[in-house]
């Protein structure tokens, strides 16, 4: 591998790595943006939910406040029994289970009334809500949760001051349990990881939808927005939970009058949970694209490596060709009639006795080296071959400036475009030694007949050895096939394959072995009797075409071609040779539609007249220029470059030969970019054609 190729391969691999990195970064960035968008939506949702739950909690507090206002109106009347009756009526009117009892305390903080009949004389002057009323003002106050001195449960008080003549005379409060309030908060349909909390204006947790007991006594940090901004009405924030440490997006809403607030936290896991399938699918697609990029980069690197090897091999091949020409004393030349450019190989220069570094190839320079007695004959032979479009084959002499005499064998062929010659090329072989030997042999005529007899006998022995070799090859190839077929039959008889799929595979092995054995026989027969009479029999061209199609699709399973094959196409012909026709025509159609967006290939009978059936293979592929239609069926003539479409250029020539031997004709029609159609005819009655005839 050259340094340039190594650099290109390294660049391709670096670009592949960069492309994969960009792909994964883009995927990660997209996921992050999507998560941020979902979390932003979660903020709005939590804020709306907090607003809705705040309305429900405010309804409870409003009912409690109304009850407090009614009770403080009744207390100054001094009728304790009537007040107790009023308390019971009030408690029954409030939401069930929320309020446990009512308490009245005097201005010193001593409990003077308890609807449960307990705790009179207890001092509550240390409670925050009492101190808030003692400081002045007629407002609703909510106390922090405490364990009840009566039943040990967590409760908090909601109170109003008692005023006499505008002066503070004590408090009346209703005691609310945190558990009923927590159950009300939990009534909001959220996921198991989400939480709803009722928070005291001072930051203490009044109730929590999850783990209410464990949250009692907890106080929110001062950096929470509702703590840092006491005048703010609502807002959102995102932090780990104070109680359980779970990351949540919180929306909060402050209640009027009391200053308490409702906070609803939506856990990241529940918010981002619906994104998990999408993100997994995105990761799978990113991984698949990464593998595709990696495969493409690797393929390009491998192709570059192969191109480097091919280039090196071409250089080595050219060197070997020059060496072979030198050893065989064969030179090559080429003449472009359009440009007049003439090229010689190094061996031609050597034969003529010229230095390639000094002299330029010219036709006159070659004629100057031809023996004067042979120049006219050489010129006439070349012109006659060019005009008759036949290969030129002539033996002549070269007379070098130093007097050296050489014998050469010159071969030439000219390509034409219509009546105009395009390119001539040929070889020149130094046969001086052979010619000298021939002349010497002419002087040894005495033992010629004996030598001929010996040579004939040797040739017979060689032919016998070739026949023996052909038989041996046939036998050696058939023996393993018979073994494969026999063992497959034994496996089928012994029932080794219990499934239908296994039995089908065994039958395919037997059929493949049988077909290959028949193919060996046909190939040997065609090799030994290539000029024998065609074996005519009934041939189903429709079935044969479908077999060819199956082989093509199996060879290239990724291709998608629409096939239109007419049923009932039957002829009297040689099945092997007709297989050659269909394999070439359908194979060409397959090949030349490989670059078509929606390839379509058809095979049908287009006519029946004068004892001839006409068939057509039509495609919508690359097509060809009708100006070159005459070259279609000439061996090695190609209307497309090898880079565009692979091929050797003998397929259509084979089709022409087979169809003509059957007594039919073949022709092609097409247009560049609009597909092609090839028509061939087959006689209804078998015709015996001389194999030597075209």
Quick rundown:
With 694 residues, the protein is of the alpha+beta class.
Structure overview:
The protein has 694 residues and is an alpha+beta fold. It has five domains: 116 residues, 2-Layer Sandwich (Beta-Lactamase); 93 residues, PAS domain (Beta-Lactamase, 2-Layer Sandwich), CATH 3.30.450; 105 residues, Beta-Lactamase, CATH 3.30.450; 81 residues, no CATH class; 150 residues, Histidine kinase-like ATPase, C-terminal domain (Heat Shock Protein 90, 2-Layer Sandwich), CATH 3.30.565.10. It has 17 helices and 23 strands. Strands 1, 2, 3, 4, 5 and 6 form a six-stranded antiparallel β-sheet that branches. Strands 8-7-11-10-9 form a five-stranded antiparallel β-sheet. Helix 13 packs antiparallel against helix 14. The chain is elongated, with a radius of gyration of 52 Å. The C terminus is likely disordered.
Oligomer category: single chain
Q: Overall pLDDT, averaged?
A: 82
Beta percentage is 15-25%
Rounded Rg = 52 Å
Q: Give the helix level as a range of percent.
A: 40-55%
Distance between the termini: 50 Å
Total domain count:
5
Pick out the low-confidence regions: 525-532, 690-694
- The tally of beta strands, per DSSP, is 23
| Principal-axes shape call | elongated
Tally of alpha and pi helices: 17
CATH topology of the largest domain: Heat Shock Protein 90
Instruction: Spell out the CATH superfamily of the largest domain.
Output: Histidine kinase-like ATPase, C-terminal domain
Q: What's the main sheet like?
A: 6 strands, antiparallel
CATH uppermost class of the largest domain: Alpha Beta
Q: Could you say what the CATH architecture of the largest domain is?
A: 2-Layer Sandwich
């Amino acid at each position: 591998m050259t340094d340039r190729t190594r650099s290109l391969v390294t660049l391709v691999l670096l670009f592949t790595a960069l492309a994969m990195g960009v792909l994964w970064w883009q995927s990660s960035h997209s996921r992050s943006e999507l998560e941020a968008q979902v979390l932003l939506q979660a903020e709005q949702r939590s804020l709306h939910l907090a607003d809705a739950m705040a309305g429900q909690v405010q309804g409870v507090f409003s009912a409690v406040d109304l009850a407090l206002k009614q009770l403080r109106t009744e207390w100054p009347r001094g009728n304790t029994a009537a007040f107790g009756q009023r308390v019971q009526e009030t408690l029954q009117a409030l939401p069930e289970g929320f309020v446990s009892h009512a308490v009245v305390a005097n201005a010193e903080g001593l409990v003077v009334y308890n609807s449960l009949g307990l705790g009179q004389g207890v001092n509550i002057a240390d409670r925050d809500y009492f101190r808030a009323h003692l400081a002045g003002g007629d407002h609703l106050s909510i106390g922090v949760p405490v364990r009840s001195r009566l039943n040990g449960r967590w409760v908090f008080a909601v109170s109003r001051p008692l005023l006499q003549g505008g002066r503070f005379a004590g408090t009346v409060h209703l005691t609310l349990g945190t558990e009923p309030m927590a159950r009300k908060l939990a009534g909001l349909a959220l996921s198991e990881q989400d939480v709803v909390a009722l928070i005291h204006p001072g930051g203490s947790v009044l109730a929590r939808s999850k783990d209410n007991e464990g949250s009692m006594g907890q106080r929110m940090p001062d950096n929470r927005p509702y703590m840092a901004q006491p005048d703010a009405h609502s807002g959102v924030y995102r932090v780990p939970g104070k109680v359980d440490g779970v990351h949540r997006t919180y929306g909060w809403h402050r209640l009027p009058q009391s200053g308490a607030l409702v906070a609803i936290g939506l856990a990241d896991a529940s918010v981002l949970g619906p994104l998990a399938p999408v993100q997994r699918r995105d990761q799978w697609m990113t991984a698949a694209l990464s593998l595709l990029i990696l495969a493409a980069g690797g393929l390009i690197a491998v192709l570059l490596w192969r191109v480097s090897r091919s280039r090196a091999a071409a250089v080595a091949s050219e060197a070997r060709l020059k060496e072979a020409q030198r050893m065989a004393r064969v030179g090559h030349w080429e003449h472009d009639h359009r440009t007049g450019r003439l090229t010689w190989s190094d061996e031609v220069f050597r034969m003529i006795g010229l230095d390639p570094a000094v002299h330029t190839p010219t036709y006159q320079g070659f004629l100057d080296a031809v023996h004067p007695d042979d120049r006219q004959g050489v010129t006439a032979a070349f012109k006659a071959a060019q005009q008759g479009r036949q290969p030129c084959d002539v033996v002549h002499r070269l007379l070098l400036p130093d007097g050296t005499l050489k014998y050469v064998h010159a071969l030439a062929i000219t390509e034409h475009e219509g009546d105009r010659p395009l390119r001539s090329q040929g070889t020149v072989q130094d046969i001086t030694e052979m010619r000298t030997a021939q002349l010497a042999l002419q002087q040894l005529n005495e033992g010629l007949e004996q030598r001929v007899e010996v040579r004939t006998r040797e040739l017979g022995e060689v032919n016998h050895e070739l026949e023996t070799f052909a038989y041996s090859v046939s036998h050696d190839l058939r023996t393993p096939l018979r073994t494969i077929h026999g063992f497959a039959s034994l496996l089928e008889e012994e029932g080794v394959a219990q499934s239908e799929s296994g039995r089908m595979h065994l039958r395919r092995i037997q059929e493949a072995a049988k077909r290959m054995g028949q193919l060996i026989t046909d190939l040997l027969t065609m090799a030994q009797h290539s000029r024998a009479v065609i074996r005519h029999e009934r041939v189903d061209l429709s079935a044969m075409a479908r077999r060819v199609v199956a082989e093509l699709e199996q060879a290239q399973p990724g291709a998608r071609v629409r096939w239109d094959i007419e049923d009932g196409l039957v002829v009297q012909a040689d099945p092997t040779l007709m297989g050659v026709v269909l394999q070439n025509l359908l194979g060409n159609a397959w090949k030349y539609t490989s670059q078509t967006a929606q390839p379509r290939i058809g095979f049908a009978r287009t006519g029946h007249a004068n004892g001839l059936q006409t068939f057509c293979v039509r495609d919508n592929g690359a097509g060809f220029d009708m100006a070159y239609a005459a070259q279609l069926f000439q061996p090695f003539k190609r209307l497309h470059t090898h880079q565009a479409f692979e091929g050797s250029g003998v397929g259509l020539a084979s089709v022409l030969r087979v169809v003509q031997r059957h007594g039919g004709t073949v022709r092609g029609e097409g247009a560049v970019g609009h597909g092609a159609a090839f028509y061939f005819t087959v006689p209804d009655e078998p015709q015996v054609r001389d194999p030597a005839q075209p």
